[in-house]
Amino acid sequence: MEVSACSVLVEDQLVAGASTEGKLACRSSTQLVAPPDVAAMLKVVNQTVYSGTTILENSNSTRVGGLQVNAVPMYNTGPNPRHPPGKWNGYVVLINGQRGSVYLSGDTAFIPEMKVNFGFRFRFAHAFLCMNLPYTMGVDEAAEATLAFDPEVVTPYHYRNADNTLSNLTLFDELVSAKMAPATPITVDLMNFYPHGPLVQFLPEEIPPLGHPI
Asked: DSSP label at 167?
């Protein structure tokens, strides 16, 4: 997988395993932020040593360019969770303090840390919330989580059901809009995460570069 951005935040091993050899191709200027076990897996194509990886554990932070990157909990609950507590990261990125705060949930359930905004004492300007059953949240749980941490704007992504159909984003919008506090409205900003449909899949070695037409 070729990444043309200057910074890449890696959540878990599924991102690191983007090819059969676990390689992540990037430009020499790309900076990676990753949990410890994922950082150990990463190899960079055509480079024997890559110094642009910052290892970040839950509750720690680092600066990447003009960004403050904060690693926050990302996990599933219940017995034998696919994403166990403390192993991988969600991220809160601060660009200009509160006004530029972005929350990236990663593959997580609605966890208690969300109810206290992961310790941040302000509303996130924009939250990107993963809805991918059975490994993350369904529509109802994602709506509950959104209402709990109360971002200014929320965008669901990876919105897929266990049977590979798309999640009901209209229902998500309705649930959030019906229960949000009038004094702190939440804008549901929907994006087309699956422009080619949820059934478009590739073998790991066939994943096209970002921006490549399918």
From this structure: P
Q: In DSSP terms, which residues pair with 64 in a beta bridge?
A: 67
The DSSP code sequence of 53-71 is: EEE--TT-EEEETTEEEEE
Query: 3-class SS at 28?
Result: coil
Judge whether 25 and 3 are in contact, CB under 8 Å: yes
Task: Print burial letters for 167-182: b (CB count within 10 Å at least 16), e (below 16).
Answer: bbbeebbebbeeebee
3-class DSSP state for residue 8?
strand
- CA-CA distance, 214 to 200, in Å (whole number)? 9
pTM, rounded to two decimals: 0.81
**Cβ atoms of 73 and 58 closer than 8 Å:** yes
Residues in the chain where the model's pLDDT stays below 50 = 1-5, 15-22, 45-49, 201-214
Please tell me the predicted confidence (pLDDT) of residue 42: 66
Contacts of residue 106, Cβ cutoff 8 Å, sequence gap at least 6: 11, 12, 74, 83, 88, 89, 90, 91, 130
109, 138 contact by CB (below 8 A): no
